[in-house]
Design a protein that fits this description.
Number of strands: 12
Distance between the termini: 74 Å
Mean pLDDT: 89
Radius of gyration: 23 Å
Strand order of the largest sheet: 7-6-8-9-10-11-12
Number of helices: 14
Oligomer: single chain
Order of helices and strands: HHEHEHEHEEHEHEHEHHEHEHEHHE
CATH class of the largest domain: Alpha Beta
Shape: elongated
């Protein structure tokens, strides 16, 4: 062996710890991130997730790793993606994109801790035993308390005072769809207006549904925050504009993208708060001991530019209620 190669070999050996030492070094925990949504439209919520991890004392790539799996609005892919993460022996499963991802994770493991985000009324749909004592290996962040669907119908009717029929869009593949529908129907009945529950779970169904609205008696459309719909946010906003459909959405991001109005909580903040639970799990706490969190603030956002394009005058009382008006 040449002298230069021998010196280099010694230097490399000195720089690397012995095998016994390396074997004793703890490995970083892996967090499984299972989402019903798409990575392209999830940058904001992923940023909220990482912020929550940071607040809990964890930084991706430094003392924790994250394995992402995206269903891109196709709920039938979730069971296989959940199984992949379980096979990786992740330390905790974080589910994003509402009940579909949470139920897929729950079916995949009864031992790995699961933290869900943005799950509508998790006790009512059977994700947890109770909000205060969730039980089992699952807890997280509830996004839609009772009354949110009703509030959307009420706000849309105030914007469209002459409306006699309002549409409410649901994805029938979502386990929480019946909750949306019942709340919306009760609200419409209380207002003395009719409501039509509309279904869409594919891009083609969305296209056909919007194309049919101008020929119907429906004056406006309420669209809740829902993982498949969220993955098609730009498409839905564009369809509403093309067919001149006044619509209220469940997330601010729709109004920012050109939607008429939105009412709901901050989705990135729900991911942030749920990620703090992930950190607490990594530090040794148990899901069954962590109560399901609920949002405390809801924002009404109006897009004045879109209202003008639709030929609508936003009532002054509604503007006074708004937390944000996009000009």
């Amino acid at each position: 062996m040449r002298r230069r190669e021998f010196i280099a070999l010694l230097a490399g050996a000195a720089a690397s710890p012995p095998l016994a030492v390396r074997a004793q070094q703890p490995t970083m925990p892996v967090i499984g991130f299972l989402s019903s949504r798409s990575p392209g439209e999830s940058a904001g919520v992923v940023a909220g997730f990482r912020q929550g991890l940071s607040e809990a004392g964890f930084a991706e790539g430094q003392n924790a790793l994250v394995a992402f799996r995206w269903a891109e609005g196709h709920y039938d892919r979730l069971p296989a993606l959940a199984a992949e993460l379980v096979a990786l022996r992740v330390a905790v499963l974080f589910t994003a994109g509402g009940p579909p991802a949470a139920f897929a994770a729950k079916a995949a493991t009864q031992t790995i801790p699961i933290i869900f985000s943005a799950a509508m009324d998790p006790e009512r749909i059977g994700l947890v035993t109770s909000l205060n004592r969730p039980g089992g290996n699952i807890t997280g962040m509830s996004l839609y308390p009772i009354g949110l669907a009703a509030k959307s119908v009420q706000l849309l009717s105030r914007l469209l005072p002459g409306a006699t029929v309002i549409g409410y869009l649901i994805n029938p593949l979502n386990p929480g769809a019946s909750v949306y529908a019942s709340e919306a129907s009760a609200a419409a009945n209380a207002l003395g207006i009719s409501i039509r529950i509309l279904n869409a779970s594919t891009e083609q169904e969305l296209d056909e549904l919007f194309a049919s609205l101008p020929k119907s008696t429906i004056s406006g459309l309420a669209i809740p925050a829902e993982p498949f719909f969220d993955s098609q946010r730009d498409r839905i906003v564009a369809l509403a504009a093309r067919y001149s459909v006044p619509a209220i959405y469940g997330l601010r991001e729709y109004a920012v993208a050109g939607g008429l109005m939105s009412y709901g909580t901050s989705l990135p903040d729900t991911y942030r708060r749920a990620a703090i639970y992930v950190g607490r799990i990594l530090k040794g706490e148990k899901p069954a001991e962590l109560p399901v969190m609920q949002p405390t603030k809801y924002d009404l956002v109006l897009n004045a530019k879109t209202a003008k394009a639709l030929g609508l005058n936003i009532p002054e009382q509604l503007i006074a209620l708004a937390d944000e008006v996009i000009e």
